[in-house]
Amino acid sequence: MKRVYVNEEVCLGCHLCEFECAYANSGAPDETGRPNNMFKAFNGPKTPVARIRVEEGEMRGDDRICFAVSCRHCETPYCVEGCITGALSVEDGVIKIDDERCIGCRTCTVMCPYGCLVYSDHHTMLKCELCLENSTGSPACVQACPNRAIVYEERQ
Amino acid sequence: MKKDSNMEENTIRTQYLVIGNSAAGIGAVQGIRSVDPSGQLLLLSDEPHHTYSRPLISYWLQGRVEPENMVYRDTDFYDDNGVTALLGPDYRVESIDGENKTAKLANGQTVVFDKAVIASGSAPFVPPIGGLETAQDDFTFTKLADAQGVRDVVDRVNEEGRQPKVVILGAGLIGLKAAEALNDQAESIIIIDLAPRVLPSVLTEGTAGYVQEILADRGLDFRLGRSIASIGDHQVTLSDDETLPYDVLILAAGTRPAVGFAKEAGIECGRGILTDEHQETNMAGIYAAGDCTDSMDISSGQVRNMAVLPNAFMQGQTAGVSMAGEEAVYDKGFPVNSLGLLGFYMLSAGSYTGDELVVNDGECVKHFFLGDDRLNGFIIFGDCPRAGIYTDLIRNKTDLAGIDTDRLFREPGIMAFGTQARAAKVARPH
Ligand SMILES: Cc1cc2nc3c(=O)[nH]c(=O)nc-3n(C[C@H](O)[C@H](O)[C@H](O)COP(=O)(O)OP(=O)(O)OC[C@H]3O[C@@H](n4cnc5c(N)ncnc54)[C@H](O)[C@@H]3O)c2cc1C
Question: How is domain A74-127 classified at the CATH fold level?
Answer without folding.
Answer: Alpha-Beta Plaits (3.30.70)
